[in-house]
């Protein structure tokens, strides 16, 4: 990991973090937050700006394609993210189900998707602090709210995704910006060299 960049988590570290938060208050919310960060590559500002209505269709089912409007994203660039990961979908369904049960008729599609323990919207800063606390409890040094985003990009590239497609999913204006997010994995580099001919 380069100095100053958020840590890219391994699958084991992500599982450990999820296991630890499952025993804490707001477990379903925090699991959904982690999955949105790691499974969609969302920034803290984008997570804080999401409303329930961004994710639910008119039939109250999760949408497969989420439109992140220019009001939500950095640089005011519209982009789309995709709810296709089964663990991400399950985490969101569990969290939204809990919210609907707790709020009953007060459940409001215009409400923030992620609410703090005080019942209001998170700010990007308070979400960053929450991620910091979660990673400290999981004893993962160097991780931050940006770790999900870096892990998302790195994992897609390691699985063979085209960097141009990853750049589009990340909402970057250039491939060179996306390349800065990807952490080089020595094992992947060795495998690539072995497979030249």
Query: Can you count the beta strands?
Result: 2
Which CATH class of the largest domain? Mainly Alpha
Give the number of domains. 2
Output the CATH homologous superfamily of the largest domain: Intergrase catalytic core
Do you know the CATH architecture of the largest domain? Orthogonal Bundle
Please tell me how large the radius of gyration is: 17 Å
Biggest β-sheet description: 2 strands, antiparallel
What name is given to the CATH topology of the largest domain? hpI Integrase, Chain A
Oligomer: single chain
Structural class, judged by helices and strands?
Answer: mainly alpha
Provide the residue-averaged pLDDT: 87
Distance between the termini: 30 Å
- Counted by DSSP, the helix tally is 10
Identify the overall geometry: globular
Percent range for helical residues? 40-55%
Low-confidence stretches: none
Strand order of the largest sheet: 1-2
């Amino acid at each position: 990991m380069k100095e100053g960049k958020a840590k890219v988590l391994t699958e084991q570290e992500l599982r450990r973090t999820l296991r630890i938060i499952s025993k804490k208050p707001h477990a379903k919310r925090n699991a959904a937050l982690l999955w949105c960060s790691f499974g969609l590559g969302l920034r803290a500002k984008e997570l804080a700006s999401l409303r329930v209505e961004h994710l639910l269709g008119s039939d109250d089912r999760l949408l497969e394609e989420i439109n992140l409007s220019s009001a939500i994203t950095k640089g005011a660039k519209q982009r789309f993210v995709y709810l296709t990961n089964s663990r991400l979908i399950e985490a969101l369904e569990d969290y939204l189900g809990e919210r609907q049960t707790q709020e009953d008729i007060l459940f409001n599609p215009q409400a923030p998707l992620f609410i703090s323990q005080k019942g209001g919207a998170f700010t990007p800063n308070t979400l960053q602090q929450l991620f910091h606390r979660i990673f400290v409890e999981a004893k993962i040094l160097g991780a931050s709210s940006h770790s999900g985003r870096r892990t998302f990009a790195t994992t897609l590239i390691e699985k063979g995704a085209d960097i141009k497609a990853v750049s589009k999913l990340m909402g970057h204006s250039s491939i060179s910006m996306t390349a800065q997010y990807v952490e080089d994995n020595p094992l992947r580099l060795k495998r690539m060299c072995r497979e030249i001919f």
